[in-house]
Amino acid sequence: MSLDAVLTRIDETLPEATDRLFELLRIPSISTDPAYKADCATAAEWLASDLRGLGFDAAARPTPGHPMVVGQSGGEGRHLLFYGHYDVQPVDPLDLWDRDPFDPEIQDTPKGKVIRARGASDDKGQLMTFIEACRAWKHVHGSLPGRLTIFLEGEEESGSPSLVPFMTEHAGELKADLALICDTGLFESTQPAITTMLRGLLGEEITITGPDKDLHSGMYGGAAMNPVRVLTKIIASLHDENGRITVPGFYDGVEELPDAVRAQWQALAFDYQKFLGDVGLSVPAGEHDRTPLEMLWSRPTCEVNGIWGGYTGAGFKTVLPSQAHAKISFRLVPGQDPHVLRDAFRNHIRTMVPFDCEVAFHDHGASPAGVMDISDPAFEAARGALGAEWGRPASYVGCGGSIPIAGFFQSILGMDAMLIGFGKDDDQIHSPNEKYDMESFHKGIRSWARILAALT
What we know:
This protein is of the alpha+beta class. It contains 15 helices and 18 strands. The strands form five sheets. The chain has a six-stranded mixed beta sheet, with helices on both faces. β1 and β2 form a beta hairpin. α1 (2-12) packs antiparallel against α15 (438-455) and α4 (124-141) crosses α15. The radius of gyration is 24 Å and the shape is globular. It starts with a helix and ends with a helix. The relative contact order is 0.19.
């Protein structure tokens, strides 16, 4: 009965919850641009004040960058930590927005009502679903559920430079039994999901240098080694004819997907033809003996993210360039050490650089993959709670992207994370006209209330 009262309270106060989200969305907390430093501080203090109003011992904690918001509530039972981030992506190009990105409004669309604003989905709308569930719970019960810590970051969209030092310094305060992360989404915009596998990320920039200056291709072509030729040969060699990555030792430690997980993924009936068709493609390009979902969630990748060299302006210039460059990223799976693979990759490239050329490397981060221990009964309890709210069983899914905070919770705080989100594939996060479905916001709040009832 008490859960029913909480859910009723959520339904009755949805307009007020939406107004509070709009207040937060109006704050242009763009973390990567120093011009918005004061706005990030304003957003942090707004959240800390809101948490204090709910009974949390909360404050915006200073860091060398933007503040961290930490809120603690006493209570009995399992200690849960909820993580979200209040910073947002830049809004450029502004002329592609249909309205002011920081003037939120509810819009009617063919797919239903949506909240349109920067941060509506990523991640202000998502983090407020949890806070609003706590608010309704407090109103009905007079106290917050269980023992909670809320941890809100202000630099997620700018590389999180302050995160690891802060977590390390405050590990005793932040450590809990389980972390909850609301920065993911529904499966194919309809299916409730708990993300249990995250790929890691390794970034490398390569520069091949040949001659000490750009050369006239008529005077030197044929006699002088062209760095673009060297680089493209290297890049072409990184995959074999079956889509496997050729870096020596690359697959060492990569385990096969458990049969039970593979069966659940197959039951999702993922429509890869539509998935690829939506972006003008039709044929999966990964390892030939893997399903498309395995390619996206449980297999490592190597992708070229940028390549340049020589003259690329208008018209034509018959230049033989001095240098050629490429940015290459690897998505990694459990069992792969990004630092070991960085060394293997660089050694592999060095063996392919011919005499008269040099190679230089610049790293762009390295984070390991994460896999969560779903034998913890909390996962099945949360899965049942989600199914009760959405009317269909929740699925355990992987994530092709990387969410480093989940790995940091494991490596620094020694706890697993449960990643539950209510975003949809077409929310246009990081893009103009970002939105968050009103259904996602409403049912997200109700979902967290059900999960809190199941876990506390």
